[in-house]
Amino acid sequence: MKQVKKLTILRAYFLIYLVCCIIYTIAKWKILAYEEGWGVVYMVGLILIGLAGLLIEFILTLIIKNKKILNGIGILIAIGFSIMLFMELKQ
Fold first, then answer.
1. Residues with Cβ < 8 Å from 40, sequence gap 6 or more?
2. Of all helices (H) and strands (E), which one includes residue 8?
3. C-alpha 52, offset from chain centre
4. What are all long-range contacts of 27-34, with beta carbons under 8 Å and residues at least 24 apart?
């Protein structure tokens, strides 16, 4: 129960992002591993970006004690990350 209270918007966003990356990697393994396997490398990179996002969230949690400000900054980071990811995948 204590862990649920500490759940922030940014942590939830990146946990959902990581779960989706892992599920997609498992579901599309044959396609990703085809030829030299650059799709797998790409997915590992996306997962590392998600882990970096969790690290940023952890650091922000240590620095900012006010949960409203922390969630506000988390929303801005999540929106920025979503736009960046959408722009990259659109190309």
1. 25, 29, 32, 33
2. none
3. 8
4. none
Asked if the structure places residue 1 within a domain, the reply is no
- Long-range own/partner contacts, residues 60-65 (CB < 8 A, 24 or more apart): 60/10, 61/6, 61/8
CA distance 68 to 35: 48
Q: How far is the C-alpha of 6 from the C-alpha of 89, rounded, in Å?
A: 32
What pLDDT score was predicted for residue 2? 56
pLDDT digits (tens, 9 = 90+) for 49-90: 999 999 999 999 999 989 999 999 999 999 999 999 889 878
Q: Please write the tens of the pLDDT for every residue from 5-22.
A: 678 999 999 999 999 999
| Domain annotation covers residue 72 | yes
Task: Provide mean pLDDT across the span 31-42.
Answer: 84
Number of domains present in the structure of the chain: 1
Contact between residue 57 and residue 74 where contact means Cβ atoms under 8 Å apart = yes
The one-letter amino acid code at 55 reads: L
